[in-house]
Amino acid sequence: MEIAVISGKGGTGKSSISAAFATLENHVVLADCDVDAANLYILFNPVVEKEKAFVTGQKAVIDERKCTNCGYCIDFCRFDAISYENDKVIISDTLCDGCVLCSRICPYDAINNIYEDKSRMYAGSFRNGRMVYGRLAPGEENSGKLVNMVRQEAKREAENNQLAVTIIDGPPGIGCPVISAITGVDHVIIVTEPSVSGLHDLKRTIEITSRFNLKSWVIINKSDINSNISELIKTYCKNTRIDILAELPFDSQMVEAMVQCKSIIEWLPDSTISQKLTHAFNRITNGS
Fold this sequence. Notes:
Elements: E1 2-7, H1 14-22, E2 28-32, H2 40-44, E3 47-54, E4 57-62, H3 72-76, E5 82-85, E6 88-91, H4 101-105, E7 111-116, E8 119-126, E9 129-135, H5 143-160, E10 166-172, H6 176-182, E11 187-192, H7 196-211, E12 216-220, H8 227-239, E13 243-247, H9 253-259, H10 264-267, H11 272-285
Parallel strand pairs: 1-10, 1-11, 2-9, 2-10, 11-12, 12-13
Antiparallel strand pairs: 3-8, 4-7, 5-6, 8-9
């Protein structure tokens, strides 16, 4: 069973809830697919047993032996990646889109294109099973493809170790990385918060999961900080026939647990939030 935990916006507590689910079972696969800002490896400190480079595309680099600093390439770059600095032509790694135009028009053949391979996929063991995560290097692209790589490795880990449950911590938003994270999963849990932006992004996220005919659930985190919007969220979910899986109260111990490199289940197993998350997880895995 693959359970993806996503959110329409950042800051809803998605990763905290993913971590909690991952520590409710003794043996799971945890896939951190938030490759632009992976952080669960900090919490769980896995033993890395596999590391694989991820080639995202190409970047332009200047061959200083050939470059005359004529600046011809600057006029053609549509990404403002090429500029003068200290009377030398330089190319910004983060702005370069890898379109290779500059290398084609350079009159001195002084620009080459190299493959970007600083991004990585890691796999190994953690205290509750197996863990796979990706880290997209700054300025590199194709995060959706890296998410797919992480998911494929997670499936291999599940099969090779006969693990029945895979928890996928997806990226926020509704873009390509999210679609890559949720495609074909058994359940999608959408974590939201009672704010105007939280409700707006929840609606957009449900539209996406509905198009893929995925079984979707909603967790309202920090539900008591704005009861009026929490009621609006519940009404919207009722009208769209989406089940509310849990309503979690605000509790600063959620943050404290992360500071201590523990999930809330490990930090305060008898807390209200832990009890609600345990019930929610059992509801999904037991099919009730």
